[in-house]
Please model this.
Amino acid sequence: MMWIDGVNPLEVTHAYVAAVTALLIFGFIAARQQQAYQPIQKNAGVGQHVDWARLGIVAWILIAAVATNVTVNTVFPEVSDSFPFLGAAVWVAI
Model:
């Protein structure tokens, strides 16, 4: 949204420098911890399966969030800032 206000992108390069530095340092540490906890396997076992119930729950939450967002912003734009509709929809879906 900065470009709408006319802010030059070069004025925030210090933020990119800090973000890249943090990503390199903490990303390396996090990757090492993840590899120690659950190493990458070249050939996953045959016993791996998809938990369809959990996948369905995630899909339901996403559908509820998208439907609420589209409905509130297209049908009721005048009240969209008066209540956290998206958060409420996700809460109800959960």
